[in-house]
Amino acid sequence: MKLVFSEVFKKHTQAEAEEIFIAGTQTTTPRLRDIKSDWGRPWLFARVFALFGISFSVLLYVALDYNNTLMIPGVILTGAFAVPLSALVFFFEMNVYKNISFYETLKVFFLGGVLSLMVTMILYQFVSFSAQEQYYGTYTWGDTISIGVAEELGKVIIVAYFVRQRNYSYILNGMLLGATIGAGFAAFETAGYIYNAGNQLLDVAILRAITAVGGHIVWTAITGAALVAVKKDAEFRAGMLFQSKFLMYFAAAVALHALWDKQASDSDWLFTVVLVTLIGWGILYRLMGEGLLEIKTRQVQISPARH
């Protein structure tokens, strides 16, 4: 993992950044045989995060020191989108196939994000919460599991739609797709939380930004990668959602989500957030390794075509 972040603090040119953003077009997508099956070394995501951080700080300064409420919407948007969009760039860089354009990624971020929220709201109509939640406002395990199933299923349905539409067949593609939809979901949800926070706006924005690295983005990246790992080169079928390998990873995402929501009312919430984040990234690390191994396997399969 140390190797993955080895380029973050090195100096890079604007030309290098622009080269990353033009990946995935008809003229810039490499052939499978030319792809290196090494771990990606992303760095641009850190620059994107820094830009958001500077923008957020300036807007907040103007809003507070000059009592300018017109800056508040900017504070909300930069605070809500900073980590999700930075994470999106991270997974874009980690897609060593370089076969998905940044335009396509942004399209999935916005459309996938809002559609997954809409589908989740529909699924919530079938969720019944406990008397404890209704009367005391605290979740039971049954409540948090129900929330996890509804939200993860809502996002997976949209992941499946884009997988079917574009016929993605590489694990790292599925991971990027899932992370992008999860990032969109997280960004719009966080904007709502910050908007409703009132005087606690700054606290909520910072807390949601810090914890975003282990939440929706990671969970949907897991299920997106797992779905494509099951699909492979075949045409997508709904039955793939019921295959044991996908269900195992989906259950892991739901469990992490349920544990995350349950900690909100517990005194040791920070420990739980760190634990869930580490487990989630551990699962992703495993799937990334599987995705890189897939490259070698596919290159071996096409090697006779060279002769």
TrEMBL record:
* UniProt xrefs under Pfam families: PrsW-protease (PF13367)
List where the protein spans the membrane: 43-64, 70-96, 108-127, 139-163, 170-194, 206-228, 240-257, 269-288
Q: Recite the UniProt keywords alphabetically.
A: Membrane, Transmembrane, Transmembrane helix
The lineage's top-level taxon is: Bacteria
> Which one of the record's GO molecular function terms can you name?
peptidase activity
The molecule here is called Uncharacterized protein
